Amino acid sequence: MYRLLTKQFIRSRSTVIVTLLVLALGIISVLMGEQFLNKQQRAIDEVAHYQQEHIQQNAQWHADDLGLLLYYLRFTFINSFDPLTALSIGQRDVNSSIQRVTIRGLEGQKYDTDLHNPTNLQVGNLDFGFVIIYLFPLLIIAFTYDLLSEEKEGGTWRLISSQASSPLLYLRYKLSVRVGLVYAVWFLLWVCAQLKLPLSLDMNTLVFIVLSGLYLVFWLALCAWVVSWQRSSSFNALSLLSVWVVLAVLLPASLNSLLANLYPVPEALSTMVEQRDGYHEKWDLEKETTMNSFFAEYPQYQKYSVPEEGFSWLWYYAMVHLGDAESRQSSEAMREKIRQREQASRIAAWFIPPLHTQLLFNDLAQSSLDNYLSFLDGTEDFHEKMRLYFYPKIFEEASVGKENWESFTPEYFADAPEVNGVLAFAPLLLLTIGLFAFAVLNARKLKALE
Amino acid sequence: MLNETSRLIARQFWSSTFRSGVVYPILGLWLLMVAYAAYSGWKSYTTHNHIRSHYQQTARESWENNPDKHPHRMAHYGSFAFRLKHPLSMFDFGLESFTGNAVFLEAHKQNSVNFSEASFSTGLLRFGEISLAMLLQVILPLIIFFLGFSAVAAEREHETLRMILSQGVSWKEVLMGKSLGLTVLALLFFLPVVLITFLLLLFSEGEVLATTDGWLRFSGIVISYVLFLIITSVVTVLISAASKSSKGALVKLLAVWLFLIVLLPRTTQALGSYVYPAPSRVEFEANTEEELIQIGDSHNPDDPHFNALKDSLLSVYQVSSVKELPFNYSGFVMREGERISAEIYNRHLESLHRTYQQQNRFTQLTALINPYVAVKTVSMALAGTDFTSYRDFQQQAETYRYQLAQTMNELQMELISNRAPAPGEGPYAISRQYWSEFPDFEYEWPALRFASLGTVVRGGGWSWVALLIWGVASVGMLTYQAKRAKVF
Amino acid sequence: MLQAINLTKSYGAFTALNNLNLSVQAGDIFCLLGANGAGKSTTINLFLNFIEPTEGQATIDTLDVSQHPKKTKQLLSYIPENLRLYPNLTGLENLEFFCRLGGKRHTNDQLQELLLQSGLQADFIHQRVSNYSKGMRQKVGIALARARQAKVLLLDEPTSGLDPKASNEFSELLLDMKEKGVTTLMATHDLFRAKDTGTHIGIMKEGVLVEQFATAEVSFQDLEQLYLKHMHN
After folding, report:
1. Whole-prediction pTM value?
2. Do B160 and C103 touch (CB under 8 A)?
3. Could you report the predicted ipTM of this complex, rounded to two decimals?
């Protein structure tokens, strides 16, 4: 039975074309992911190399003034990534994974963007996640939309109704052949990904795999439900495609516009201005005021004194730091706004499976907005660490030569993604089960005649 | 060409589509989406421009409120350039969400333009943005496909096609008629968009419709989209005529939509990035730094270029030390340094942007087979939201920055003494009236120019040609298909 | 009026119509008999210029149909085996639409009159065609032929699927048209109708016209035997 059904299905030209297309794009997406990883790795290698050169060069030029040297020196902080990022590039192409910061004001540095072609960003990535979320549903729709209607329209349904002991069972056989092919393609692509990319089979990867499989089940359930309405091929194709357009294109895009309008982020600009003003106005203020604020935060440096007249590095770095301090409120407000956006989209995602799956993929691959925000927090910690390391040396006017500059290699930030299993699978499972239930109920009413 | 018979067929298509009742829910949903997109575009435009002009003003006030001080400090105090949105961005967001909006302008350093919407996005941006242009480019073709896929195929299936042809109607008349009917239907969907855009432009700040430039852009947009809709309608009818069944036609059209709109642009861009790799920020900065060191780095006390400069100055003015020069020497050094570094940086940036253009070229070339890409490019160019427009902002910001830095340097050269201040004397300062005298950053929109190739034509480039070719070719294809079409 | 001269149509190796030579005089009703696939519909389609002949030509009123598509179509009216109209329009609206396509305009009254003359019941004229039976749709087809003042009528299995009453009505309409000088070429399985209504009969087998004669020359039994004889060879 299966053998014949499989033959009948595979011989159809459209089946072959669609399957090959999805396979081809899937393989391309894996290659794109590999290319992305390579590019990131290359950037990291470059930065490590240039860091050394940069430090050596500047140490030479400013060998007599540590304060001045640290005005120029940039230290590298890298957001490490999991190979899974190749499968779901997420925000990693927009937001840089590499921070090169001086110990001066952080607010003015940490949001510096990488260089990228905005057209690439607008068009979007062809990553594995895209293939799963966008293309596989279309494959499933293409395979199943005319499950029943092709028989009815071809005139063979009457034969089946009269010959088969259970026409419903026949349909189930037919469906399982198609499902089998879908999962065969899915499996092949995962094998390809495993071969080409350095994926480790840890918990995150497994969750990723299971999630992608479960997402496909959702679409199967949806198609089964629509097919159970027993309408024409054209109707089914139109309906299923409309659903796809709504779920995969319209709703997320509308949500995006909605959130952008509900939660604009003027705090980004106010932070820029406040930080600049906060630092610069100190030049014209009484040194005492500035130093008091600085010592209030770092009492350990009270022992160092600032000359009445003239320039001192202690005063300078205090001013710079206070610039950051004064824009802290705006900075936090900005983060809060972004967090609100994140929250809102996660809640909405409960009802929009493609969105839900995409967000989870990003979480697992450490390429989500959350990850970026954590990285920014990590950068702040790193920045503070470097500052506190160098402050006493600058204030004591230590010698440049005494410092082992070669030890300053790039440091890494690692954020362990916490993916709540229940929250991850619940929405999809609920929707899928619901749809299957409806489909089964409808199937009981299977009619012999059209 | 469009004779009485064709018009009859068009009218019949129109009335049968309406009678089947399928148009009304689709039209209703469409109007809902259009309203939402218009609101979204308007809100985004007004909110962002308010925010940006507010902070531009705040920054300006801070600038002017500075007391008397050393001009070099003002050069580091710097200024901001916040990119204002073009009014037509309410219609087509273009690349706006993917390019930065704010840049800090200071001496010695070219900063990046930060805070693009994309950087705040939760990943939703991947799914696209709802704008009026997006609806016209992505959703309306789908609607046209839905409404027209059975235009010819159903007639063939229902065998009414024979009745029509046996009355003496030629295939060409049938195809023309159906295309006309479908196009007019498409224009029914297009009209509310035009109206709403017109109203938005009329009542929003920016007064775009008061200028010739604005009118040209608006008309250009209308014409381009009408052309695009005609092309889409003709393609629908052609595929319907070439397919054996309605179901087959629908599947083919959906495949076309998927391929041309979702898959092809992504693939060609990826290919472009692969073939023309662009440097990372690290590489870019390192390259600029390297060249700077070679040519003349003002931070390096032993730099040969600056040493040579110093020597020649000393001999021209016939003095033995820089302190005796009639102008402030460090101001001079910084002016020279700024000139060099700005020139190097701009050259590298120009080269980077050429690489981007090369990357985009693959997609641009496909405009010839993909009218979606053609209309998208043209639309962005006309709305002032494409890369060329962004680049224009960046250049204006950089020019302003350069002027700011050099003006401060020159003030320093003229007005600040060459000698170090005596102990007890405060640092040198100049009057704060100089700060008010230096104008604020004002972004000027690039205008459409007829005589020379303006930003718009350069931005749209190849796509203009492609769109026109498609427009003409589609009619040609009708004639060609008319010869090949089958009755059953 | 109608002439097929060495008319041949092949699809690759398969020959649907082989060297047909046929002549139908004005006012005749020529019935083409034959099994499925014998080439009857192919002949009709060739006269309609729906397909191109591989060899030979089909002419209507001495005009080659492929050289003068519009002119020849204006002379004829076609009723396919399953005459389909637009289901969402009424019979009257359908008639009006197809008339205008053919370039003729009529008033509503004229069209109504034509429909009534063709036997369509008055209360159906303004109902949507989705409610019509096949017979009723055919009557609209006849009305269309009359409205066009067609000189030639091409019919493809017109009586298949009609009940005896409808079939009879149709025959009467045909004879009425014949009185008005209309030439008819009809492809049919219906031996009875062919003998009853036709003036000439041609028997086709595997693309070849194997017999042709005037109806008056044979009795019904002879016709039946002749037909079966060719069917069995």
Report:
1. 0.88
2. no
3. 0.86
